[in-house]
Amino acid sequence: MDLLDRARRWKATGVGGQRSLGAVHRWARAGICPLVALLMLLAADAAWAKPLRVGIAELPASYGNPYTAVGIPSALVWLQIFDALTKISSEGKLVGALAEDWHMETPTRWRFHLRKDASFSNGKPFTAESAQAVFHWLQSETGRATIVANALTTIESVEVIDEFQLVINTVRPDPILPNRLTTVMMVEPQSWATLGPKEFAVAPVGTGSYSIESWQSIDGAAVLRVNPYSWRRPIIEHVEIFPLRDHAARFQATISQQLDLTISMRPELIGALAQRNFEIIVDPTKQIIGLAFDVVGHPNHPIADRRVRQAMNLAIDTETISKVITEGVHPPASQGAAPGVFGYNPDIAPYPYAPERARELLVSAGVPDGFDVSASVVIGTYANDVEIYQKVQQDLSAVGIQLTIESTVFADWLQQYAFNNWSTEMFSLAWNNTPFNDALRPMEYFSCKKAKPFFCNPEMMPLIERATVETDLETREDILQQLELQFHNEAPHLFLLEYGHIWAVSRNLQGFKLDDRIPQLHQLSFGPGP
Fold it and tell me: Fewer CB near the terminus (10 Å): N or C of the chain?
């Protein structure tokens, strides 16, 4: 059997594909010995078929149902399987995904022009009718209860103009509607309707680069295979995503080269990783980590008093947390947005470390001897979170406040967040300005607009409502900056750090890129290494 026959047989098996046959022709024309060419071909395609191994903290709690959560950790998997109409680029700009372009025809009418080359992983084309079906479900009684639907309450109706044109009508002006759509993953409507959300979650069908082969392999990894119909076909066709909640486990798996790409590395390990030829990438900071106060659920607790919440912020030494615990990688937070987010107010400074002032506020609030408080937290989501919470406990204890930390898993945290049925007075929550890159989104869930609010100040609602309808960018930015100052003063949150995940990237990976904190796995390829 000659070399071309071998390549044709290989191609027929689907292993080498066009890449193998093309290489054979090129090498044959170049006069390379057939045996040498075959060995080169075997080596090249073995590398091509090598799985990409990714380490993350947790897999999505609802598997492949993309309407039950927003952001990391779930989006790390979902955005490999699904696409939305729009997305935020690595530069923080709103760009097209399944929608190529869009414009506002009137303050309440948006027209979207969709891609013509997108198909679902079952081969069915993505069309305007596909998108309309998704929006119709999210507007149903069941759909309205999802977290994603909470951001779509302004949508009144969705019209199909033709196969690739969609019009969305809103009940009032919504200047960030295209930003909101970054959270709406497009599922294949017939599969969704036939299987229902629970069964669809096990075998999701999207337009992304990959589809799920298994949610748990023998090694405990979620296994993704190439979506042969994807409009953004990947270079690496096989991905294994390992859920490793423990930081130490992720680090050990990384330095032992069991992983090629790992999220949430601890800052003090950056040097050790760099020495082992890993590239270190800190994603653009767009979220503020800390602890939220469940004021609505605990109206008789001291945290219901603004002075107490301010005192707790003044009692925390965020400068030391930043410099000592996070090696200065994550700076202290001043507000619910970070630099680069639309609406960030550069005139607001972080709460200073002022324990004496904190004690004065506790006296004026009628709790001079302090009090007990508890917080539900998900451990492992952020690097050094255990040490951060320990430092918060220590600082609060110094002013008489005894904080008890109760660890929970993300699935339980998510259910409590959705229905605001916390048994604790506080809980871990980031002001997550992704995926909108706009300050309004976290403001809405720290307000009366949330379906089941944990913090609700009616006096702030008129300004929040103005921000939701104002179409003039300069005016809207000013409104958001006013709101950031009000939220800073109301202190519905222990503002701790401006946070960005630290990624460890193997040196033999090429093309690493983050769009809105999510790695674009389809652009990655294996190179020769260092």
Answer: N
What is the per-residue pLDDT for 489? Answer: 97
Give the burial class of 221: count Cβ atoms within 10 A of its Cβ; 0-12 exposed, 13-18 middle, 19 or more buried: buried
Question: Under DSSP, is residue 110 helix (H, G, I), strand (E, B) or coil?
Answer: strand
- Give the alpha-carbon dihedral of 207, 209, 213, 215, to 10 degrees: -90
pTM comes to 0.74
Nearest CA to 290 among 500, 495, 501? 495
Question: Average pLDDT, whole number, for the chain?
Answer: 89
**Cα gap 185→86, rounded to integer Å:** 10
Q: Which ranges constitute the DSSP H helices of 112-263?
A: 128-138, 177-180, 189-202, 247-255
Chain CA centroid to CA 77, Å: 10
DSSP 523: G
Q: Give the residue carrying structure tokens 């769009």.
A: 515
Mode of pairing for the β-strands spanning 401-408 and 493-499: unpaired
Taking only the tens place, the pLDDT of each residue in 252-261 is: 999 999 999 9
Q: How far apart are CA 118 and CA 260, in angstroms?
A: 29
Return the pLDDT at 369. Answer: 95
In DSSP notation, 355-383 reads: HHHHHHHHHHTT-TT-EEEEEEEETTSST
Q: Where do we find the tokens 């760009």? A: 95
CB-facing half-sphere around the CA of 69: CA atoms within 13 A: 24
| Contact assessment for residue 439 and residue 341, using Cβ atoms and an 8 Å cutoff | yes
pLDDT digits 0-9 by tens, 139-160: 999 999 998 998 898 999 999 9
The amino acid at residue 155 is I
Select the highest-mean-pLDDT range: 55-64, 84-93, 365-374, 509-518: 365-374
Instruction: Name the residue among 520, 438, 475 with its Cα closest to residue 234.
Output: 520
Beta bridge partners of 111: 103, 167
Cα distances (angstroms) measured from residue 405 to each of 255, 271, 398? 31, 31, 16
pLDDT at residue 3 tops 50 = no
